[in-house]
Write a structure and sequence with these properties.
The complex is a heterodimer of chains A (296) and B (436). With 296 residues, chain A is mainly α. Chain A is 72% helix and 2% strand. Chain A is globular and about 75 Å long. By secondary structure, chain B is of the alpha/beta class. In chain B, the strands form two sheets. In chain B, strands 1, 2, 3, 4, 5 and 11 form a six-stranded mixed beta sheet that branches. Chain B has a five-stranded mixed beta sheet with strand order 8-7-9-6-10. The chains are: A mainly alpha (296), B alpha/beta (436).
Chain lengths: 296, 436
């Protein structure tokens, strides 16, 4: 794009007017709450806001030395890695399979994308109904088979359940990107490799997988952000952070401290830390991903 | 522009219309957390009150679960948009009491209504819980309940237990539960909702042992928890041992264990008296009994404490509005209303007159389960251990207890470790909530 094709506005006010709705939304729904969170994070306040005290970085100091916070950080890392790996692994497998299908390609793809339309809280409820030890159908079958299925008390099973629910929902999204990625790989490359005698597995690992790398990297960032921030509904519906604190992620802890325990300062400080994390992740995405992905 | 013009005048007209109507009727907003049949009760009561007079109009608004309603109220207060009346669950009582500038004591409001407020008309156990240490009643008890024991008569018969004789003490419950399990009458012997409310808070009151210093927080917010005393440790270790082979099944932190009993998977069940409706609806052959106690505890059974919710009134409203609130509360206290509320919904009656009325009508002969919680609460005058538990952050302390219980029931720690941890973490959280 040369500069000669740049559109210029003779009117000085119009561009700002056109930008105004977008700016207003950003200010109201992002900058305003974010600034409130930062303000709240340096204050100590009772729930009703009757007495307010400036404590500087006191809230941050307390959180970072709280073993429960470090625990929820660890839970978040395990949860995010497991969710991202499972969601991406299955999506890639399904995408490769769907790519080979000749008849009914569209139907497969459409069905694969459906779960993405399910809201996190609903996804959580679905899995809960299937696997809740008191009323779940699958839970009943597992128990009948003699396996002691009890995610209410067994932390590993609880983690498995929320990871499965979170990954299930995200597979669709990843699938879509992997299918697009596969389509952009020139068929001639693969055919050439086949003629040279490379088997299917070899072709996948030496040609397809490396060429999908930009997509994979992009999805890794997106999935991590998803696991960090968008899975609150699932955890809230399925485990409520329990048993013990086994599935209390950082976002869940922000909610719990702010809205159940009514400690607004601690909760705000935690969300400021989360804000820093998401800014970091976005920076990584722009720096490394945008450069390497070629939108052909 | 014509469209904008008409919509503007329309809006103006609406504003005028609504403001003229508000000259005649004072609106009283009531935020609540009642769902299903209980929500219908709220709607009916408001409608009946609105039709009974023409000065005030109560507008009920459903705001979600108990914690969500509390949060909505707090957020609204901070935004200076608080409702007049808000329903707050038992555990939120301490939170509301800590906010002196935000609320108006119900005792003051009731006397503003003209009639002199007479505390002795109300059930003492309930009123004590919602009053300040000096005796001022702060909130209006709306739906109160207490934990009782339910059991499945068919399972009892199958296990060779006396179906007309429910277990009265915890050792008897353990025995019966083991028999149910070993005889194969059911997969699990015993389950319970709300371990915190039933097995710590009511356990303390019913066995007359301390839950925490300062009369369990009723006398002051500075509380040190005492729930790692030997009697609790013994009780929870027994529970943890029973959990190992599934004789006791854990259902969840709040009411999630209910399906385990309703589906016939567990034979014995402790749950709020407010849960009776679902048990009746399931059509099962059930029996009820008093909450079990520890026979080694001196003076047990003492009395149980109220759970449920009460109505709080926010500060900063006009006198006319408070008069409306007073009129509504006086309406709610009416004997016929209270008697009906009690008989239909299963909540405890708030006034003694409503209780006597129901008794005289012979209602309890047909529905003995409805009287159990009242008898449990009124049997003895409350001691310093049995007025209830009130902490500035009870929801948080309950969460801490639940986390430790879960780690105990999964075998990660003993009852002693679980309760020691709960006390240590709970005390730190209470200190923080008190601003220390």
């Amino acid at each position: 794009m040369a500069s000669s094709t740049r559109v210029t506005f003779p009117n000085k006010v119009l561009p700002y007017l056109l930008l105004a709705p977008q700016l207003a939304i950003t200010i109201v729904f992002f900058y305003w709450p974010a600034s409130q969170a930062i303000r709240q994070s340096v204050l100590r306040e009772d729930p009703f806001g009757l007495s307010t005290q400036f404590v500087g970085l006191g809230n941050f100091k307390r959180i970072l030395s709280d073993p429960n916070y470090l625990n929820s950080l660890q839970v978040t890392v395990i949860f995010s890695i497991a969710t991202a790996v499972i969601a991406m692994g299955f999506a890639l497998l399904f995408a490769v399979m769907a790519d080979k299908v000749i008849r009914g390609k569209g139907v497969y793809r459409t069905l694969m994308i459906w779960p993405y339309a399910v809201a996190p809280a609903i996804a959580g409820m679905l899995w809960l109904f299937l696997f809740n030890p008191s009323m779940g159908t699958f839970a009943y079958m597992i128990r009948s088979a003699g396996y002691n299925w009890d995610p209410l008390l067994n932390s590993n099973q609880a983690m498995l359940l929320v990871v499965a629910a979170a990954a299930w929902k995200q597979i669709s999204y990843n699938f879509l990107f992997f299918v697009a990625g596969l389509q952009s790989i020139p068929k001639s490359l693969i055919e050439a490799a086949a003629i040279d005698g490379a088997g299917e597995t070899k072709r996948f690992w030496t040609i397809i997988f490396p060429l999908l790398a930009p997509t994979t990297f992009f999805l890794l960032v997106v999935n991590t952000v998803y696991a960090f921030f968008d899975t609150f509904g699932i955890i809230h519906a399925v485990t409520g952070g329990g048993p013990g604190k086994a599935t209390e992620t950082l976002v869940y802890k922000v909610y719990n401290d702010g809205f159940v325990n009514l400690i607004l300062g601690d909760s705000a400080a935690q969300s400021v830390i989360l804000m820093v994390i998401v800014i970091g992740l976005t920076a990584i995405q722009f720096r490394y991903v945008e450069r390497k992905v070629h939108y052909g | 522009m014509t469209f904008r013009g008409t919509s503007l005048s329309l809006a103006l007209g609406l504003i005028l219309a609504s403001s003229t109507s508000s000259f005649a009727v004072t609106e009283i907003s009531w935020w609540h957390a009642m769902t299903g049949a209980n929500n219908e009760v709220v709607e009916t009561l408001s409608k009946e009150f609105n039709e009974s007079q023409s000065d005030y109009k109560v507008v009920p608004v459903f705001k979600g679960t108990y914690p969500e309603t509390l949060n909505a109220g707090i957020a609204a207060f901070r935004a200076k948009q608080a409702p007049h009346i808000m329903q707050v669950f038992d555990a939120g009582t301490g939170v509301m009491m800590g906010a002196e500038g935000a609320i108006k004591p119900v005792a003051d409001i009731l006397s503003m209504g003209g009639a002199k407020f007479d505390k002795s008309l109300y059930l003492p156990g309930i009123v004590a819980y919602y009053s300040k240490p000096d005796g001022t009643m702060l909130s209006f008890p709306y739906n109160s309940s207490s934990p009782i024991l339910y059991y499945n008569k068919d399972i009892f018969k199958k296990a060779g237990l006396d179906e007309n004789n429910p277990p009265k003490t915890w050792p008897e419950v353990w025995e019966a539960a083991k028999k149910i399990k070993t005889s194969g009458a059911a997969k699990c012997g015993y389950t319970s909702t709300w371990l915190t409310w039933i097995h710590t808070e009511n356990f303390a009151a019913w066995n007359n042992v301390s839950y925490g210093t300062n009369e369990n927080g009723i006398a002051g917010t500075d509380v040190e928890l005492k729930i790692n005393a030997p009697i609790y440790v013994k009780h929870f270790q027994e529970l943890a041992d029973l959990a190992k082979d599934g004789t006791f099944r854990y259902g969840g932190r709040t009411s999630e264990a209910k399906p385990l009993f309703l589906s016939g998977e567990c034979g014995i069940f402790t749950e709020s008296s407010g849960g009776l409706g679902d048990v009746v609806k399931s059509g099962m052959n059930y029996g009820t009994g008093q909450l079990p106690y520890d026979p080694d505890a001196k003076g047990a059974p003492q009395n149980t404490t109220p759970g449920g919710a009460s109505l709080w009134v926010f500060a900063g409203k006009s006198d006319a509005e408070y008069k409306g609130v007073a009129a509504f509360f006086t309406f709610l206290s009416r004997t016929d209303i209270q008697a009906r509320l009690h008989q239909v919904s299963g909540y405890l009656p708030v006034t003694l007159a409503a209780y006597e009325d129901t008794k005289k009508s012979g209602f309890y002969d047909k529905n003995p389960a409805r009287e159990i919680p009242i008898k449990q609460m009124m049997g003895k005058a409350p001691t310093e251990n049995s007025k209830g538990v009130r902490l500035p952050n009870l929801p948080q302390v309950r969460d801490i207890e639940n986390e430790e219980f879960e780690n105990m029931l999964s075998g990660k720690q003993t009852a002693q470790q679980a309760l020691d941890n709960a006390v240590k973490r709970g005390n730190a959280a209470i200190k923080q909530a008190n601003g220390q």
